[in-house]
Write a structure and sequence with these properties.
The complex is a heterodimer. By secondary structure, chain A is an alpha+beta fold. Chain A is 52% helix and 20% strand. The chains are: A alpha+beta, B alpha/beta. Chains A and B meet through α12, α19 and α22 of A and α2 and α3 of B. Chain A: This is Putative ABC transport system permease protein.
């Protein structure tokens, strides 16, 4: 067996370029799997550990003003493990050197010790001294956005009174991994931050001595969240409590969950596609590669080697390639995985990162690749080993070709002999040609599925920012205000148009499916923030009835005309039945919309508003900012322009980074496929082509014959590649669609073109590499040797 | 040492090939193989020359150099006025294309093309070819021209190869073991075809063979040994192929 092993080693060296190309296809798929599963698991593990170590609460509720004495009653609710009552209020901030009004979510710290729940990780400095009135700790993202270090100062309008505050600590909290300000759909670290302040100081400012306005509850292991929420709501109701909610509806957790879900779905969708494609290609390539060694197999047999010895020799060759591929893929995947983990870890601002070791992932990737390689080799070996040695050593009998057209029709009048050679070759090996086309089509398809996220992001931006929410800014109030306040807002400097909005938290239900959403009441003639239906047309809200996100309709299983049950979680807290009047195309969150007057009637209240959308005169922004900063009732001013920039800078970057990595891996696979196709095609036809050279064909003419076939197969592969790419993109989009964010399936023409261009470029590069081989064809050998 | 034609320094007007002190040395690693050791000869138009000799004696090396498939290490080789020893790959390709027809031991037909199309493969790139069916008629295969190689016997395949080689009306036909893979009866038909072409077109024909019987159809026979022409015989009477036995 030793000699065979030496042959194996030399064969690998001789065929290094091809071996590497096959190994890279495997590596691409393995890297995809290891990277995506590894990074998802690391981030998920990190989040779990973060939540656990820092006691992230399970249930949350806001209340207008509840006495501290209520805490013990909450603690007695069956299933409650711990309760943390605190003061939580929004307030406008005035930051030196920062023109726009920013918003702070002020959260109280207990006078003694640290909070039981949602504990803080102190990144720098310390927590405020108990009893201090000006010391605060701030969230790290906010601090970084403004370059705040301990000792920095800014002021806040707390309950109408401006206070100078000093930063003493920079902290992280599991409760605010994602911190999103009022009216925003994306985090804006410059304009929104969390500010922790000693309880006494905050109670004094908001007149909440001996009272709390927010409560967080940790549940016992087997407690029923729903039961606890019901009881908590009952306790808080008479103190102006808003409906309590679980982690699922807690903004930070929900966003984080969604992001991780997206990563998880990517890791469940793309790697299997890549693995299947790679397995298929490796199978195809090895089959043809082993078949080329037919004569040597005959020789080994003639020398007395058994079928098993011969089979295991070729199997070893295949396994060597696969193992190299797995090794490269595992290393690259591990590296890319830790890169992505760090990227997301930074984005989420986890205080620490746990890099999950996942031996099962490597094992899974190895088993899948080995199986693919072995099956590919087995298919070829079965044919070769079955031959008698004398037959195997002979060149294969000239294959039987067929006339493409009935006899008598001279195709040579229409086509050159090289073209006929190519066409008959394809007709003679329809499966081989078919598989080659399929391989290249799959290469195009995985490129499309990696690239299309870019298109969907642009479409999402287009619909969200330029068709639906076209306002320049949104002013939010700390509490609901009479609708008359609209006229004051309209008189603010620089305001061109003002549209009022009223938001009511509700639970919406159909049969046994229930979600907690906001219903916004909007003026019937709203022009700034419009409702876009599924056909991307603006819709006018009907007098009555509810418009809901198409995604919500899907979750609830309702269509236009169906009735849903709605628990109003504000005011009189009635339960009403509303008809679904329209479905809305939106991509962030799930929500409901109603005519503002209809909503007022439903709430049985005089018209009130929570926020106002504005169209602004950009030249007067500064004076608007200055005026808003002095308004005690305003909790925030969200700027659409900034929101879009943030979206592009944060989420879009993450998504496109992931997409770029996948695209790179897909490109490697595509190149591997095309290169191997060209290279093997050359090996199979080396003798024929050398004969043509002897007959007087120039190098260019011989190359044309070889490349004509490659070019034809590459071109033919593109259309099915596009169709499969669209199909895979559909699968991916469906898997990624969530309640917090989803996309519409959009694949731009430029994406098809780009994917095809990469495959065509791979074909061109392969052709250039193969060209060198054609120059080295041994013309003399062909006279004497057979195959 | 006997030489084919010892008139050094000049070329006859009727000379198709003129070789002077032609050598070929192969170097593989540290081993040096002297395949040709200073050949000088002349071959005139229309001659049939058979090259005989043991394996490794230099016949094929010479044929390859004469066919423009390989380069000599030193010495000169003229095809008419063309100095083959000075041509680059492009020049050699053009030389093969215009002047040389090859016939190989293993036919080297393109399996995906019919007999007719295999011939047309060459006529398409030639300047003044005969029609493919004409060439096939010359080797007696006009009835089989729509058959693929797989549908033809070995002898028929070799005759297609000959038709392909002569279709461009080459001045020289170089045949390396044309009967090597055939039984005697079929081999004789192939030799008949070659001689027929030589008679009708006047193509200078060189045939390498291990089969000593074939020497009787040649005008001249070169015996090769150790990179040299060890003996040269001129047949005053060429025998017809049909009279051959082996």
């Amino acid at each position: 067996m030793r000699m065979l092993d030496i042959k194996l080693f030399r064969d690998l060296r001789r065929l290094w370029a091809q071996a590497l190309a096959i190994a890279l296809v495997i590596a691409g798929a393995v890297a995809t799997l290891v990277m995506s599963v590894g990074s998802y698991r690391s981030l998920d593990e990190t989040r779990r550990a973060y939540y656990e170590r820092y006691q992230f609460a399970d249930v949350f509720a806001l209340v207008r003003r509840a006495p501290m004495s209520l805490v013990s009653q909450i603690a007695e609710i069956p299933g409650v493990a711990a309760v943390d009552a605190r003061i939580a209020k929004l307030a406008l901030l005035d930051i030196p050197g920062f023109r726009e009004p920013a918003t702070g979510r002020f959260v109280s710290l207990p006078e003694h010790g640290t909070p039981h729940l949602n504990q803080l990780y102190v990144r720098a400095g310390r927590l405020p001294e108990p009893g201090s009135v000006a010391e605060v700790a701030i969230s790290e993202s906010f601090a970084n956005a403004h370059g705040f270090v301990p000792g920095a100062r800014f002021s806040a309008i707390l309950n109408g009174r401006k206070r100078e505050l000093t930063v003493v600590g920079i902290t992280l909290s599991p409760e605010f991994v994602y911190a999103i300000g009022p009216g925003d759909i994306m985090p804006d670290d410059r304009r929104f931050g969390i500010v922790w302040m000693p309880e006494k100081a905050l109670a004094g400012a908001f007149d909440l001595d001996g009272a709390f306005s927010s409560v967080a509850v940790k549940l016992l292991r087997n407690a029923s969240e729903r039961e606890v929420i019901l009881r908590l709501d009952a306790l808080l109701d008479r103190y102006g409590g808003q409906a309590a909610y679980g982690r699922k509806d807690q903004t930070s957790h929900a966003f984080l969950d969604h992001e991780l879900d997206m990563l998880n779905n990517m890791s469940r969708t793309l790697p299997p596609i890549f693995l299947v494609v790679a397995a298929f290609l490796v199978n195809l390539t090895l089959d043809r590669l082993v078949a080329l060694d037919r004569e040597q197999v005959g020789l080994f047999k003639a020398l007395g080697y058994g079928n098993l010895a011969i089979a295991s020799h070729y199997l070893k060759f295949v396994l060597a390639l696969v193992v190299i591929g797995i090794a490269i893929g595992s290393l690259a995947g591990t590296w890319l995985g830790s890169l992505i983990t760090s990227l997301f870890g930074d984005y989420f601002r986890f205080p620490f990162l746990i890099f999950s070791k996942s031996p099962d992932v490597y094992l899974m990737a190895a088993v899948a690749s080995l199986t693919a390689g072995t099956l590919g080799a087995a298919r070829a070996l079965r044919g070769v080993v079955a031959l008698a040695p004398a037959v195997a050593m002979q060149p294969p009998a000239p294959p039987q070709f067929r006339h493409l057209l009935p006899l008598g029709v001279r195709v040579d009048r229409l086509l050159s002999q090289p073209a006929i050679m190519m066409l008959r070759g394809i007709a003679h090996h329809p499966f081989r040609a078919g598989f080659t086309v399929l391989g290249m089509a799959l290469a195009t398809a995985i490129l499309i599925v990696s690239l299309f996220t870019r298109d969907t992001m642009e479409q999402l931006i287009d619909v969200t920012y330029f068709m639906a929410d076209r306002q320049d800014a949104t002013v939010s109030f700390t509490e609901k205000r009479p609708r008359d306040v609209l006229f004051q807002v309209a008189r603010l400097p620089g305001v061109i148009t003002a549209e009022p909005y009223r938001e009511v938290p509700v639970r919406i239900r159909h049969r046994n499916v229930e979600r907690r959403i906001m219903i916004s009441g909007r003026p019937p003639d709203a022009d700034l923030s419009r409702i876009i239906d599924e056909k991307l047309r603006p819709v006018v809200l009907p007098e009555s009835g509810l418009a809901i996100s198409a995604m919500l309709a899907q979750i609830l299983g309702v269509q236009v005309g169906d009735d849903v049950e709605v628990d109003l979680l504000d005011g009189q807290r009635r339960t009403v039945t509303l008809p679904i009047a329209a479905l809305v195309e939106d991509y962030f969150g799930i929500r409901g919309m109603m005519n503002a007057d209809a909503l007022s009637r439903l709430m049985r209240e005089a018209p009130v508003i929570n926020s106002v959308h504005l169209a602004l005169d950009e030249s007067r922004l500064d004076s608007l900012y200055d005026t808003v900063k002095e308004l005690p009732s305003v909790s925030g001013l969200a700027l659409q322009r900034v929101s879009l920039a943030n979206f592009r800078a944060s989420l879009a970057v993450l998504v496109t980074t992931m997409a770029s990595i996948y695209t790179g891996l897909a490109a490697i696979i595509a190149f591997g496929v095309v290169y191997n196709t060209a290279r093997i095609s050359l090996s199979e036809r080396a003798r024929e082509l050398a004969s043509l050279r002897v007959l007087g064909f120039t190098r260019a003419e011989v190359l044309r014959i070889l490349f004509l076939e490659l070019a034809l197969l590459t071109l033919v592969a593109q259309l099915p590649g596009w169709v499969m790419g669209y199909g895979l993109a559909w699968v991916m989009r469906t898997n990624l669609a969530g309640e917090l964010m989803r996309v519409r399936l959009v694949v731009e023409n430029s994406t098809y073109v780009l994917a095809s261009a990469v495959v065509v470029a791979a074909a061109v590069v392969s052709a250039l590499v193969v060209r060198r081989r054609v120059h080295q064809l041994d013309l003399v050998a062909v006279l004497k040797t057979r195959d | 040492m006997p030489q084919a034609d010892t008139r050094a320094g000049g070329r006859m007007d009727t000379g198709v090939f003129t070789a002077r002190d032609l050598t070929k040395v192969y170097r593989t690693g540290e081993v040096e193989v002297r395949a040709l050791r200073g050949l000088t000869f002349e071959i005139t138009a229309g001659e049939v020359v058979v090259l005989l000799g043991p394996s490794g004696s230099g016949k094929s090396t010479l044929l390859n150099i004469m066919g423009g498939l390989d380069q000599a290490t030193s010495g000169r080789l003229f095809f008419k006025d063309l100095d083959l020893t000075t041509l680059d790959d492009r020049g050699l390709t053009a030389y093969r294309r215009r002047h040389v027809g090859f016939v190989f031991q293993f036919y080297n037909l393109v399996p995906s093309l019919t007999a007719y199309e295999n011939v047309a493969l060459v006529t398409e790139i030639s300047e003044n070819p005969m029609r493919p069916d004409e060439a096939l008629a010359l080797v007696g295969l006009e009835a089989r021209m729509d058959h693929f190689p797989a549908q033809l016997s070995g002898g028929e395949q070799q005759r297609v190869a000959i038709a392909r080689a002569i279709a461009k009306r080459p001045e020289v036909l170089l045949c390396d073991e044309p009967t090597g893979a055939l039984d005697s009866k079929t081999g004789i038909r192939v030799i008949e075809a070659l001689l027929g072409v030589n008679a009708q077109l006047g193509t200078t024909t060189l045939i390498i063979t291990h089969n000593a019987g074939i020497q009787e159809v040649a005008d001249r026979v070169f015996f090769f040994a150790d990179g040299r022409i060890s003996q040269e015989i001129r047949n005053e009477m060429r025998r017809a192929a049909a009279e051959l036995t082996w």
